[in-house]
Design a protein that fits this description.
About 35% of the residues lie in helices and about 25% in strands. The chain is built from ten helices and 13 strands. By secondary structure, the protein is an alpha+beta fold. An eight-stranded mixed beta sheet has the order 4-3-2-6-5-1-11-12. Strands 7-8-9-10-13 form a five-stranded mixed beta sheet. Strand 11 and strand 12 form a beta hairpin. The radius of gyration is 19 Å and the shape is globular. The N and C termini lie far apart (about 50 Å). It has one domain: Glutamine Phosphoribosylpyrophosphate, subunit 1, domain 1 (4-Layer Sandwich). Bound molecules: glycine (GLY). Glycine binds next to strand 8.
C-alpha cells in the first residue's frame, strides 16, 4: 500500500519509475529469444549471442559474447581492437552494460584492453561502483586478468598519420557504414539486457567520452518495459538522454518504432533550437519492448541494424527523418 501511494505521488509529479508508468498491454513475449544489434556487424554478433543463449547462457552472457566478437575483430575499426585512435594516436574505448534489474557497469576512455564490455560487466558485478575511467579502468581490468594489448592496427595508424597532415576534425556520417556496436535482447522468458561498446569518434580530443558508456544515453534497459541503444554522434545523444527517452516513450505506450522516432525528432528540435549546424550529424536508435516488438529510427538514411530470432536473421534499413 505504501509503495502504491508513493508511486502515485511520484506519478502525479511525472517522476514515477519507468516500469511503474508502463502502459504496455500487449501479448507477453512468446519467442525463444530475440537480439537487435546496430549496423551490419550485428549479423555475426547476433549469431554468436544466439548460440550462447541456446547453450544455456543468460541474456547478459549472450550480449557479452556477441559484442566481444566484434571487439576482438581487428577489421572492425570503430570498436575494440582495431578501433580508430584519438587525435593523439591513442585508442581509447568506452562501453556499458545493463541488465533487467537495473544493474549497471561502465568503463570510459580505457586504453590497452580489447574487451571493454566485459570489463564493464566486471565493474557491475565485482565492484561497489558503476563506472571506472581511464587509468583506473585499466588498472581494474588488469587486476581482473584482462590482457594488456596494443589496440592500434597498421591500417588505423596509417590513416591517423594521413589525418595528421591536415588535422581537421569533422564528425563523419555513417563512417564506413558502422560506428558503435549496441546490442539489446531478451531470452525465452522475456528477460532483457543490453550492451554498448565503441572506440568513439575517430580522432576525437584525448579524453573525450561519447554516449556509449553513459547509461541513459547510449543504452537503457527497463526489465518491465523494454530496451534501447544508440549509435552515432554521441554528444547529441547525451544532450537528449536518448536511450532513456526511448524507453520512457515505450513506457508511455509508444511502439518501439514510434519511441525511436520521437527521440530523433527531439534531437532535431534541440538542434533547431540551438541554431547549430547539424549537416554532419547522424544518430540512430534501436529498441525492443517486453512483448518482443522491435523498432529503429535514424536522423538520416544509411543506418541499418541486425535482427535475430528463432526464425529470423536479417539486416534491416531504419526509417529516417531527413533526406
Ligand atoms: N556513439 C559513439 C560516440 O559518439 O562515441
Amino acid at each position: 500500500m505504501i509503495r502504491r501511494s508513493f508511486l502515485k505521488t511520484l506519478g502525479a509529479l511525472g517522476l514515477a519509475p519507468i516500469a511503474a508508468q508502463a502502459k504496455l498491454h500487449k501479448a507477453p513475449y512468446s519467442g525463444q529469444g530475440l537480439f537487435l544489434t546496430t549496423w551490419r556487424f550485428g549479423l555475426e554478433s547476433n549469431q554468436v549471442a544466439w548460440t550462447r543463449l541456446q547453450e544455456g547462457g543468460s541474456t547478459l552472457d549472450a550480449i557479452e559474447a556477441g559484442i566481444r566478437r566484434c571487439e576482438l575483430d581487428p577489421a572492425e575499426r570503430s570498436v575494440g581492437l582495431g578501433g580508430r585512435p584519438d587525435r593523439d594516436g591513442v585508442v581509447t574505448l568506452d562501453a556499458c552494460i545493463m541488465d533487467h534489474l537495473g544493474n549497471i557497469g561502465s568503463v570510459c576512455g580505457m586504453e590497452g584492453i580489447a574487451t571493454p564490455l566485459s570489463v564493464a560487466r566486471a565493474v557491475m558485478e565485482k565492484t561497489p561502483h558503476v563506472m571506472l575511467v581511464g587509468d583506473g579502468a585499466q588498472q581494474f581490468a588488469l587486476e581482473q586478468g584482462f590482457p594488456l594489448e596494443n589496440l592500434m592496427v597498421a591500417d588505423s595508424e596509417r590513416e591517423w598519420k594521413q589525418w595528421l597532415e591536415k588535422s581537421e576534425y569533422q564528425p563523419v556520417i555513417n563512417i564506413e557504414n558502422h560506428d558503435t556496436i549496441g546490442m539489446i535482447g531478451m531470452d525465452a522468458s522475456g528477460i532483457l539486457a543490453g550492451g554498448c561498446s565503441t572506440s568513439g569518434m575517430a580522432y576525437k580530443m584525448h579524453g573525450r567520452v561519447g554516449d556509449s558508456p553513459i547509461i541513459g544515453a547510449g543504452l537503457y534497459v527497463d526489465g518491465a518495459v523494454g530496451a534501447c541503444t544508440a549509435t552515432g554522434h554521441g554528444e547529441e545523444v547525451i544532450r537528449t538522454v536518448g536511450s532513456f527517452r526511448v524507453v520512457q516513450g515505450m513506457a508511455q505506450g509508444l511502439s518501439p518504432h514510434q519511441a525511436c522516432k520521437a527521440a530523433i525528432e527531439a534531437i532535431a528540435e534541440f538542434f533547431t533550437r540551438r541554431g547549430k549546424d547539424w549537416s554532419h550529424t547522424q544518430i540512430g536508435f534501436i529498441a525492443l519492448n517486453k512483448s518482443g516488438e522491435i523498432g529503429a529510427y535514424s536522423l538520416r538514411p544509411g543506418f541499418n541494424y541486425a535482427v535475430k530470432s528463432a526464425d529470423r536473421a536479417e539486416l534491416l534499413d531504419a526509417d529516417y527523418l531527413l533526406d
